[in-house]
Specification:
Shape: globular
CATH class: Mainly Alpha
Helix content: 55-70%
Number of strands: 0
Distance between the termini: 33 Å
CATH superfamily: RNA polymerase sigma factor, region 2, helix turn helix motif
Oligomer: single chain
CATH architecture: Orthogonal Bundle
Number of domains: 1
């Protein structure tokens, strides 16, 4: 097993440096530090996917936590036939879609994801500390907020493909594997999503699409801590 670790470390492995296969094997062997490293490695990507499907920050975080717990319990089934990121993305997608189905049954109404426009409710601005100046921070925050609103207004099928292809920069094959759809469908939905967004955003789209749904350090820490605490609780039950 190739741990791909820094030379000379004969005590505690640095799981941040381990490759995905070694990380998955370590999680399967009960290495909690490895599990924490896995979550930190994929938190940003998987949160964005959950947020794209559910259109709600809190719901996305809850679904991500559920998916991580499912991943921990099922990690022994991961054989490396697909990329770890793809395997995790499928679990997140399933967790999100399960929430949508439960919500639809509970309220006997349309699920949260629809083809209608966003209801206009304000959401917390994302972190903009990386901007070069206060003016840049304000401009990027406003533009990012606009993109998020336009994304929320897209049909779910377009929105999820757009996030995977443009925000997370997955290729067509990876996106198709994650969603279980043909590559031709990925290309069609991606093209249509970009066309719809460009109608409103024009040249500004390319400047901001990588920054939507940012995932700051505090939120990352909170996700890791909550999942580990829930894992402890389930072990005591």
């Amino acid at each position: 097993m190739n741990l791909d670790l820094a030379a000379g470390d004969a005590t505690a492995p640095d799981w941040q440096l381990a490759d995905d296969r070694a990380l998955a094997a370590a999680v399967g062997a009960g290495e909690r530090d490895a599990f924490a490293a896995l979550m930190r490695r994929y938190n940003r990507r998987l949160y964005r996917l959950a947020r794209a499907i559910l259109r709600d920050d809190a719901e996305a975080q809850d679904a991500l936590q559920d998916a991580y717990l499912a991943a921990y319990r099922a990690i022994g089934t991961f054989r490396g036939d697909a990329q770890l990121s793809t395997w995790l993305s499928r679990l997140v997608s399933n967790a999100c879609l399960g929430r949508l189905r439960r919500d639809a049954r509970r309220h006997a109404a349309a699920p949260m994801v629809s083809t209608s426009a966003n209801d206009g409710s304000d959401r917390e601005l994302m972190d903009t500390s990386h901007a070069a100046s206060p003016d840049d921070a304000l401009m990027r925050a406003q533009l990012r907020r606009l993109i998020e609103r336009k994304l929320d207004a897209l049909p779910e099928s377009f929105r999820v493909v757009f996030v995977m292809r443009c925000v997370e920069e997955l290729n067509v094959e990876e996106t198709a594997q994650c969603l279980g759809i043909p590559e031709a469908t990925v290309r069609t939905r991606h093209f249509r999503a970009r066309s719809l967004l460009r109608e409103s955003l024009a040249q500004d789209l390319d400047l901001a699409e990588r920054d939507v749904f940012s995932f700051d350090g505090a939120r990352c820490d909170r996700i890791v801590a909550t999942v580990l605490a829930r894992l402890d609780d389930s072990a005591k039950a």
